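<instruction>
Derive structure tokens from the sequence
<data>
Labelled lines for chain and fold
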Amino acid sequence: MKGRKQFTLASTDVRLTLPARPENVAVIRHVLGAFAEALDLPADVVEDMRLAVTEACTNVVRHAYQDELGPIDVVIRPSGDGLELIVIDHGRGMGRSPDTSGPGLGLSLIAAVAESVKIESGSPRGSRLAMVFPCKPRLMVV
């Protein structure tokens, strides 16, 4: 699409792009959970990841596009001893929403459960929220 900032994918990335609709937040959460469980990540890490991606995607649905429909891009990227989750919108990006009187708790909640969080503004529009979670699979004792 014209005006979208290009995002380079690595060969190990998993990318999911869906319309920014409330029902698709549950789809993204389910896909992420299945992926993390397939990696045999600890249950508490999987739940933290599900919570964070739900908050990030809900922010996109509620705030990014106003009256137009746009996509949510979610990238799952192995990163050293972690798993990076990236949520991208191509809408108006981060900022105060006209339907609330102040900031919500979503970003604070994400920061509390993720190992690190980085927010970037898109050019010319949109935002990119990258979250890293520890990704060491459980060791099986024989």
Remarks:
- The radius of gyration is 15 Å.
- The first strand starts at residue 14 and ends at 19.
- Confidence is low (pLDDT under 50) at residues 1-5, 138-142.
- The chain has one domain: 14-134.
